[in-house]
Structures are given as C-alpha cells and as structure tokens.
Write a structure and sequence with these properties.
The protein is α/β, with parallel strands linked by helices and 1117 residues long. It has 26 helices and 21 strands. This is Structural maintenance of chromosomes protein 6.
C-alpha cells in the first residue's frame, strides 16, 4: 500500500509496494473527503470488467517464483500457553496445521502475533502478555525466523538471509526483544528496530485479514453491522492508516497557522519600537567634540609613559656589570669540587672492582662446592648401605649358630633316648609335622605383612618429620610477620589523630623534642624529618612507586651540619626504641628551590618524581634532588610501557631509571621487582590501610592457628606411627621367635629316623651344612668390613674436600666484609663530595641566574619601552615632547570621560543605543521573513494535501472495485452470486449473497444462510481482501469449522488456486479437519502439512518432523 514517509510535503502516487505501520484507534473520515461526490451503491459489473481490462495486475499471472522476503520460515514456542516446547518450519507457500480441538494449534497463531510485537488483546486469547506463560513456569519465549533474501532484503550485510525475532515474556509482565542475524548474532534489542523490520516487509500484525483468528472469524460471521465490515475493509487495505496520517498532517497545519497568526499580531508593535530606537540613535552626535579632546590627551599620555620608562633602565644596567665581575671566583670553586668528586668515584670504583673479583672467585668455587657436597652425600649413603648390610649378615650369622647348637643338642638327646613303638611314633610325628607346617605358613605370612607395615610406618614418620620441620619454619615466619603487622597496626591507629605516628609511636615525641631544642637555640638550622611527612602526592596511584624510589629516605632526617647531627643523634638516643632509630644525613640547607630546568628529564607522557610531589619546604625538595635526583627519575604506571621507554627505546635525556605503579625499578638494562605490594607512608586513606592491615593480621592469625593445629596433628601422627612401628617390631620379634621354634621342631621331628639303632647322620649332615653357612657368612662379614673401611676412607676424603672448598668460600666472604665497609665509606665520601660540588654549582648557578634575572629584568624594561614606543607611534605617529606627567594627563582624561558618561546617562550609552537599534531592526526583519516563509509553506501544504485526498478517493474506489470483482468470481465457483456493496459517504459495507438453492432470491443478511454457506461467503470475502493487501503471509484459524463437505472442498480449492496464483505469498491454515484425503492437497511442491498430536502437558519438543516424514513415506508408497 502506501509506505509512510518522513515528510508530508511531496505528492506520492498510491503504491502497492510497501505498507505504513498501522496505528491503533478508530477510523475518522476526513471532512474534506466526505464533501466529494462518490458512488454510494458500490461498483457495477461493467465498471468491474472495465477495471479488470484496464489493470493487467488484477489478472494475477501465475508467478512460479516464491517470496524472497517477509515470509515465516520457522517459529519456536517455549513454555508458551499449553506447550513446553513447540517448533515449526513452514514452507514458502501453503502450510496446514491440523489437529483436534484442544491440541494447542491456535498457539501457533497467537505465538506469531505475540512474537512480532502484537498486544495480548489482538489475539483474543488473554488480557495480558503474562497470561500466555505456561502454568508453573516463570517465563516464556517465542522465536520467529523471517526470510530476508534478494534485492529487497532488509540490511542484508547485518542480518544475512534471515531475520530472527525473539521475544521473552516474564511473570512480572516485563518483555524483551532480541533481533538476531541468521548466524545467531544479536543485532538489536530495541522495539523500534522490530517496527522497522515489519514496515520493510509489509507485515501487519494487527491486520485482522492478514492474521484471522477464531474469535474474529466467528464475530464476523454473526455480525450484522455494515459499518464494522467497512472498518474491516479499511483496516485490511491500510486505507484507515492513510486517512489517519492525513488527519495528523491537518492538525499540524492548524498549529502552524496559529503560530503564523501570533507572529502577524506582533508586527505593528515591533515596527513602533524600531522607530523609537532609530530616533535615539540620531540624537548622539553632540558628544563627538568631547571625544576628540579625549583622543588628543591620550596621544600625550602615551608619549609621557615612554619617557618615564626610559629613565628606569640606567640603574639596572649598572648592577649587571657589577655581578659579571664576580663570575671567575665561582668558576674556580666549581672546578675544585668536581675534581674531588672524580677522586672519590675512582676510589669507589676500585673497591667495587675488588669486591667483584671476590664475587667471581666465589662464583667459580660454587660448582666445585656443589660437586663436593653431592659426592659427600653419595659416600654417606654408601656407608649407610654397607652398615645395614653388615647388620643383616651379622643377624644371619647369629641365627645360624643358634640353629647349629639346637641341632647338636638334638643329636645328643637322640643318642640317649630309647626308641619304642616306632610305627605309632612315626604317624604321630608326621601329623605333628603337618600341623607345625600349617602354623609356620600362617606365621610367615603374618611376618611378611608385619614387615610391610613397619616399612610403611617408618616412611610415614620420615615424611611427617619433614612436614613438621617445614610447618615450624612457616609458624616462625607467621609469628615474625604478625609482630610486624601488630606494630604497624598500632602505629596506624595512633596516626588517626597524629599522622606522624605512621612512622612509629615515638615519632611525635621525637619531633616535639626537636622543636624544643631548636627553640632553645641548640641547632644551627632546624632538622627536617621524617622526610615522608614533609611530602604529599598529587596522584595517589603512585604512592608505592614514590616509596620504592625514596626507600629509607622516607624514614630519615636531614641535618644542616655535623653539629646539628650530633645534637639530633643525642635526642634520638633518648626517644627512639632500640633498632628503630632513623638515619641522619648531612646536607647543607638552601632556602631557595633549585632550578633544575636544564638538567631534569622531560617526557611528553610521563612525569618525574619531582612533578608528582607537593613539597612546601624548599630544603626538603633540594635535599631529595641532591640525594635521590628526583628530577631525573620517571614515573611510568604500566610495567610494559616502562620497559618500552627505558629498554626497547632510547631512554629520555637525563634519565637512567624509572619506577612503575607496582613499585618495580626499571633501568636501561636491568629490571628489579618490588618486594612489597602496598605503600606504608603515603597512602591517603588511613582507615583503608588500617582495615587492610587488620584483615592481613586476621588472615595471619588464622594461618597461625591452622599451622599450630597442623603441627599438633603432625606430632600426634608421628607419635602414633612411632608407637605402631615399635609395636609391630615387637610383634615381629615374637613372631620370628615362634617361627624359629616351629622350624626347629619341624627339623627335629623330620630328623627322627625309624630304624634302630637311632641314625643321627641326617642331623650331622645338617650340622655340616650349618658349619658351611657359618663359614660363608663369616667370609662375607670380612668382605663387608673391608668394603666399609674403604668406603669410610672415601667418606673422610670427600668430607675433607668439601670442608676445604667450603672454608675457601667462607674465607672469601670474610675478606669481602672489610671491603664492603670501605665501599660504604666511599659512598659517603662520594655523597659528601657531590654535596660540596652541588653546593658550589648551585652557588654558581644562582650567581648566573641572578645576572640572567637582572638581564631579563633589563630586557623586560627595554622591551616594555620598545612596546610602549610602538604603541605610542600607533596612537600618535609623531613623537611629542611632553612636560606633564602621565598621571596628570590621565586625571584630565578621567574628568572628561566622566562628563561624557553623564551625558550618556541622559541620552543613553552610544554603543548600547547603536547596538540596540541594529538588533531590533534585525529582529523585525527576521520575523517578517518567518511570516513570509510560513505562508508559503501552508500554501504548498494545502496544495499537496488536496492532491493526496483526491488520490485517496480514487485509490479507495479502485480497491473497492477490485475486491468486489474478486468476491464475485469466488462466489461463482460455488454457484453463488452476490456482490460487495460499498457506501463511502456513510462508511458502510454490506455483502449480498444468493445461494444456488435460494430460488434466485437475494439474501442481504448472511445470518439467514446456513453455517457452511456463511463460512464459505466469509472465505470469499477474506480472499477478496487478500487480493487487495500486500502482507507477505496470510493466516486463517479454523476457517472451515461451520462448513459442510461440499463448501469445505470448494473453499479449499479456491484457496489452493489463489495460493498457486500467488506463489510469492505464504498461506498458513489451521483446521481441526483431517485434510490428508483431499485430492487438491496432493501437490507437495507448494504445500506442507503438520499434524498436531493430542496435547501432552509433560512433553518437550513435539515430534513434528518424524510425523511429516512418515506422511511423505505413505504418500510415496
């Protein structure tokens, strides 16, 4: 139909290409339209035929190409109405959804309306969106896939070949949209985007003809109101939307007309105001003479100022010459101090070289030390192994000798005993041997188990002891850290009222006594400190970086000379706790801040430490520049960027190191990570640091409790395992004794021979065997002892070698200690020499700066003289000789200007009057231009709206003729006759239908027809309206519920014929009838049929695909 435009100032011909999105509300016919003469009784058949012949589009040639855009490819319902999950994939042309009443097929139509943004009231299935959520569920989801192909596709680069619309419904009434591409990517979540999609595809969700549900169809069948049918026609063809748009334009025209009237009413008043201001503008000419006199005085004033400035240059030039004469003395002092620094640095480098040589020697000994240590361990292990083997062989030798003695005793007993009843004694002896062997097997198995358990207990004890050692070390670390944190927490809590307590509870008392001593005159200069309390941060994120840079200087004090150092050290001995005395650094105090502009680091992105600190005391800032070169250290928050600046690129000039926000120190070729992650002194929020310290202390206390509990458990486990080990060893000894006893008894019984006299040869052979074993074991003992003695010698040699190398390393370390002391003293000498050099360089710099400042002041005055001379020439090109002072001339100028001001009070300020006049004249012209433009616009709008209203009437008449023609053709297929009668004046539409059995009597009220005839007539009416609408799909729900078989067959044939002629449109029919037996539904190329199973509230996804495949198989068979 007509696609809505952004502007209503152009005339568009009615088109069937796109539709305008329909707005809710009743149709109101435009008054201008109603005044036109129109055909009141509908179109005649002659007009219908002429229209058909004149418009070839009404013949509907058979279009074989399916639609590229706008049709529904699939719909998915989740927890919607009675369905847990329901999915459909529709065909591009005809789709039947067949199911018994109550199977939930109408949910497809409802889901389509709701999913595309329709309201609940449109569906006639519920009063609110949340009523569609399945009982017992919290939310429902509807997903619809719309085809998006070809030249008319909507944003194909973003969505692809399909637009997926998802709508989620919640129990609280909330709803949300997601518009996705074919790949599942979310493109938009806005309702406006969905409206744009529907507009582009001409989808009319609230059009009752596009989506006709059961209630709308039933109400239409029973409706007698011709006005309702007419509104139905207007809504289906979007004529109602066009009329509504025209009404909105007319309302906007009235508002513009009202604005125009308001502006026209203000014109006379504005014209009068402009005339009055023009007269005031002309009355200001009398002040020109006074203004000319002021101009002459200003010329004299300008040259008077030049003369006074020229007199001020002479004393400045004289002072500059006096200072330049003192420069050679400062140059000599600087040279002498530089030589002292070079000598101290050479000494420092020599000591450092010696230390490096010692370190190289230690490094060279380390591999030998480790090798000797490993060899020593290897020898110790070998000796332990040999000792264990020696004990084992010794035990075997003792056991063998004991067994030999027992066998000898048995031989003696057997020779002395009297043998009786040998047969009975043999049987008893064999039985006894069998019983003893069974006992022996049980004891041996028990012994094996006991040995395994002893090994396990021994390994467990060893493992637990190692864990015990590690835990005790962890416990000691936790206790040390806990004491440090408790002391730190105490300092922080005290610092809530006194920030100095951050540096220790003693610090306020120390600072107080320093102040008292200074007031008593004991110091030459008041010492500064702790230095961390004298500075503050501009960027709190750099707190850890600054503390890592300054390190111990944060806690230190600085003194002006050695006298002040001794006094301060005496005060510290009285106040500071043992081990917490701050360091004292001597540095000459300078009350003026150093000028570091020439020697400092400059970087466009990263500041120096000096830039991020607020230091009120110049002594402190000068001290930090001397001791730490804070003007040459960069602050770079990001570690990666710090490496990039300092190592991968050429470092900035005058910069050798940088610090990151994490406290890491970055050199040009080295990188040192910080050993802490929190700042201690410069944090802004004390409460936050107190809380963090308390949390850390609490975690440490919890860790300590857990560690102590683990220690107790380990000690208990060690005791238990040792007890079990001892118990099993005792059990092993007892078992071994029982084994030996049983083995002896078995050997004793086995050695008994039956023949008489008693034969002891077997036992004697056993004795010989024991003798051989004893001899072998004794030889083995000798071998083991020999090996042990050799291994012991190797062990002693290895231990000696290890001790020798270890002693060398210790001696090297001891020899390095004096050098370290010398290095520390050399550092102090360098520091002092640099301080002296810095002092003289600063003095030299201050001297040169003083000359430069004086020269600058001279140049400034000279430049000012030059500028004032130039200004004077601009004011008065001829130089004037003025005897009066500039002040005297200025006073006269002020007096004349006061007089001018008094005149302006009476007549008005000249500039204000002039400005006011031109502004009012410009405003008056602007309003006149606006009135002219508004009149032109209203005239153009009236012409356009007149054309559009005429076209609207023609277009409405054409659609009425077209619908009537199609309606008549559809009735003829059933043998019916009739027509659609339009009356556009009173906005009514009536259907006149004559059935084939009514004896040619026209039935004007369709309710007098049978249910099937009414349904058939309704279908014809719907098909006629379908022919006049541009929606890409049409949906009917239970269209044939009141039809008999004949009317149903004819209606279906008509709809299928329409579908075949409109292959570029999509049709979705919902019916409870079994449609599989109808011959006109055999064309599978254009049709898909879905059969709904009986409703099962507990099912998940309904098995439509499988049933469709079974139907296709049945049809093929």
């Amino acid at each position: 139909m007509v696609k809505r435009k952004g502007s209503n100032t152009e005339v568009d011909q009615p088109s069937t290409s796109k539709r305008a999105r329909a707005q809710s509300g009743h149709h109101e016919e435009d008054p201008d339209v109603e005044e036109e003469e129109e055909e009141g009784d509908g179109a005649g058949e002659e007009d219908v035929m002429n229209l058909t012949q004149g418009d070839p589009n009404l013949n509907h040639p058979n279009e074989v190409k399916e639609a590229d855009t706008g049709i529904i490819e699939a719909i998915s319902l989740k927890n919607f109405m009675c369905h847990s999950r329901l999915e459909f994939k529709f065909g591009p042309n005809v789709n039947f959804v067949v199911g018994k009443n109550g199977s939930g097929k109408s949910a497809v139509l409802t889901g389509l309306v709701v999913g595309l943004g329709g309201k609940a009231t449109i569906t006639d299935r519920g009063k609110s969106i949340k009523s569609f959520i399945k009982h017992g569920q919290n939310a429902a989801e509807v997903a619809i896939r719309i085809r998006n192909r070809g030249l008319e596709a909507y944003k194909p680069d973003e969505y692809g070949e399909a637009v997926i619309v998802e709508r989620r419904l919640a129990q609280d009434g909330a709803t949300s949209y997601r518009l996705k591409s074919i790949k599942g990517k979310t493109i938009s979540t806005k309702r406006e985007e969905l409206s744009h999609v529907l507009d582009h595809f001409n989808i009319q969700v609230d059009n009752p003809v596009s989506i006709l549900n059961q209630d709308t169809s039933r109400n239409f069948l029973h409706s007698r109101n011709a006005s309702d049918k007419y509104k139905f026609f207007l809504k289906a063809t979007q004529l109602e939307q066009m009329s509504s748009d025209y009404s909105t334009i007319q309302e906007q025209r009235e508002e513009i007309q009202a604005t125009l009237r308001t502006k026209e009413e203000t014109v006379p008043q504005l014209e009068k105001i402009v005339s009055e201001k023009e007269q005031r503008f002309k009355d200001l000419a009398t002040l020109q003479e006074l203004e000319k006199k002021v101009e002459g005085l200003k010329n004299m004033y300008a040259w008077a100022q030049v003369h006074e400035l020229e007199k001020q240059l002479e004393p400045i030039a004289k002072a500059i010459k006096q200072e330049e004469a003192r420069t050679p003395k400062y140059d000599q002092k600087v040279q002498e101090s530089m030589k002292k620094v070079e000598a101290a640095e050479a000494k420092h480098q020599d000591i450092q070289q010696k230390l490096q040589e010692l370190a190289d020697k230690v490094q060279a000994l380390n591999p030998k030390h480790e090798e000797a240590k490993a060899n020593l361990k290897l020898k110790k292990d070998a000796c332990k192994k040999t000792q264990a083997e020696h004990r084992k062989v010794l035990n075997q030798l003792k056991t063998t000798k004991r067994d030999r003695e027992q066998v000898m005793e048995r031989i003696d007993e057997m020779k002395d005993s009297v043998q009786q009843d040998y047969e009975a004694e043999r049987r008893a002896r064999e039985e006894q041997i069998r019983l003893l062997q069974e006992q022996l097997q049980k004891l041996q198995a028990q012994q094996t188990t006991t040995d395994h358990q002893i090994d396990q207990f021994a390994q467990a004890v060893t493992l637990y002891k190692e864990q015990l050692y590690n835990l005790k070390r962890d416990e000691q670390d936790i206790q040390n850290t806990t004491r440090q944190l408790q002391r730190r927490l105490q300092d922080l809590q005290s610092s809530r009222n006194n920030s100095l307590k951050r540096f220790g509870n003693f610090m306020p008392d120390l600072v107080r006594q320093i102040n008292q001593a200074y007031q008593q005159g004991r110091f030459h200069q008041k010492p500064r400190g702790p230095l961390g309390s004298c500075i503050s941060l501009r960027d709190p994120e750099l707190a850890l970086a600054v503390e890592s840079c300054l390190k111990n200087l944060m806690f230190a004090f600085c003194a002006n000379d050695h006298h002040d150092e001794r006094v301060l050290e005496g005060i510290m001995k009285q106040v500071c706790p043992q081990g917490r005395r701050p360091s004292i650094i001597i540095s000459r105090f300078h009350e003026r801040p150093y000028d570091v502009s020439t020697n400092r680091v400059q970087h466009p992105d990263y500041p120096a430490v000096l830039d991020v600190l607020d230091i009120e005391d110049p002594v402190v800032s000068n001290f930090l520049i001397d001791q730490r070169k804070i003007e040459c250290v960069l602050m770079i928050k990001d570690n990666k960027e710090a490496r990039q600046v300092m190592q991968l690129q050429r470092p900035p000039r005058n910069c050798n190191e940088a610090f990151t926000a994490m406290g890491d120190q970055v050199y040009t070729n080295r990188y040192y990570s910080s050993n802490t992650d929190k700042s201690s002194y410069l944090r802004v929020s004390i409460e936050e640091e107190v809380q963090e310290t308390q949390e850390r202390l609490q975690r440490l206390q919890q860790d300590g409790s857990a560690t102590r509990q683990q220690l107790a458990e380990l000690e208990q486990d060690i005791r238990k395992n040792q007890q079990e080990q001892r118990r099993h060893q005792t059990q092993k000894m007892k078992t071994q004794e029982s084994i030996n006893k049983i083995q002896y008894e078995i050997r004793d019984l086995q050695s008994v021979e039956e023949p008489t006299p008693v034969d002891v040869s077997t036992l004697e052979e056993e004795v010989m065997m024991y003798d051989e074993q004893i001899k072998s074991l004794e030889e083995k003992m000798e071998t083991i002892e020999t090996d042990f003695n050799a291994q012991k010698e190797d062990l002693e040699e290895a231990e000696s070698a290890y001790q020798q190398i270890d002693q060398q390393i210790r001696e090297l370390a001891d020899s390095a200690d004096p050098l370290k002391d010398d290095l520390g003293r050399a550092d102090i000498e360098i520091s002092q020499a640099k301080q002296h050099r810095k002092h003289y360089e600063q003095k030299h710099k201050e001297h040169l700066k003083k000359i430069a400042d004086m020269q600058k002041e001279h140049d400034k005055h000279a430049k000012k003289v030059e500028e004032e001379t130039g200004k004077a020439f601009q004011i008065c090109p001829e130089r004037l000789k003025v005897r009066r002072t500039a002040k005297n001339i200025e006073n006269e100028i002020v007096q004349i200007q006061k007089r001018i001001a008094q005149e302006e009070v009476k007549r008005g300020n000249r500039e204000e009057v002039t400005k006011d006049y031109y502004e009012s004249r410009e405003q008056f012209g602007t309003i006149k231009d606006q009135i002219r433009e508004l009149k032109r616009f209203i005239k153009s709008l009236d012409e356009i709206m007149f054309q559009r209203q005429q076209l609207y009437k023609d277009f409405r008449r054409m659609l009425a003729l077209r619908s009537n023609h199609f309606f008549i053709n559809m009735l003829h297929q059933r043998g019916f006759s009739g027509k659609m009668k339009f009356d556009h004046r009173v906005c009514t539409l009536s259907l006149e239908v004559q059935s084939s059995e009514s004896n040619k009597q026209v039935t004007k009220d369709m309710r007098s027809l049978s249910g099937g005839e009414r349904s058939f007539s309704t279908v014809c009416f719907i098909l006629a309206l379908w022919d006049s609408m541009e929606s890409p799909f049409r949906c009917l729900d239970e269209f044939d519920v009141f039809m008999d078989m004949v009317n149903r067959r004819i209606s279906m044939e008509m709809m299928m014929k329409v579908a075949q002629d409109h292959r570029h449109k999509q049709f979705i029919f919902l019916t409870p009838q079994d449609m599989s037996s109808h011959s006109y539904l055999r064309d599978q190329s254009i049709m898909r049929m879905w059969r709904m199973p009986d409703p099962d509230r507990g099912t998940g996804v309904l098995p439509f695909e499988r049933r469709v495949e079974e139907e296709d198989d049945d049809r093929r068979n």
